[in-house]
Amino acid sequence: MTGFLRRDGARLRIVEAGEGFPVLFQHGLGGDAAQVADNVAEMAGLRRITIECRGHGGSTAGDVRPFTIGLFADDVLAAADALGLDRFALGGISMGAAIALSIGARHPDRVAALVLARPAWLFAPAPDNMRPYAEVAAALRALPPDAARARFAASDCAAMLSRDAPDNLASLLGFFGRPDPPLTAELLADIAADGPGVTEAEARALDVPTLVIGHGVDHAHPVAFARALAATLPRARLVEIAPKATDRARHRDEFRAAVADFLAATLPLRPVTEEPRP
């Protein structure tokens, strides 16, 4: 099911699947609801909801600038309010994990559980692992897309990623083929310079059951970040899964299993049954 919410000049696309306990699950930078659906399987008794962030998927960019994780988090909360959701589980991949952490720290009373998958931030803005996104943004601002792609592909940054994190490199090269290069550059530059807006002390006080998912062979999502978050959040459990760069199918299967096991053990999931026919 798909719906839309208008907010601050933006038309936000809301994608839902299933019925039951609501789980708001957010995609990563450059992703959309399809990324979530690929990694979070439908479950009996679960209502999976993704609000595609401004400038992503079927959502328009709107008028508010700069793009920030806090702005995206406010959009998710506005969608939850519009849907009449007082309490929900919350999760996300990469940027989506930062959005989830931002909401969880500010509104822990509304969050039944957290899933922080492949975190790209701890607590400080503009971490070094986000620098390649800023380099892609700079290339797109300086040159037409094909020339910008060639410049980035020949850079020291691309050479490092080709060696250490080939999946990250493939993702970054994909940004050069997006239909609106100026908007893509704006999104990448703004989000790469931002952070969740959550302090370490606030994270230590976040008394919510939490699953943290991490893996290796990934420059954008250092496994050290996943381990550090799991050690900081008081009710967190860390699951390390197969790297996407080395075995994409196994990575997907282990991601899905980790999320499903955690949600089934944490949430009051009740399968939706059909009313008996007269």
UniProtKB/TrEMBL annotation:
Any single Pfam family the record assigns to this protein: Abhydrolase_1
Superkingdom per UniProt: Bacteria
SUPFAM superfamilies registered for this protein in UniProt: alpha/beta-Hydrolases
Residue span(s) of domain AB hydrolase-1: 22-168
Cross-referenced InterPro entries: AB_hydrolase, AB_hydrolase_1, AB_hydrolase_fold
UniProt name for this protein: Pimeloyl-ACP methyl ester carboxylesterase
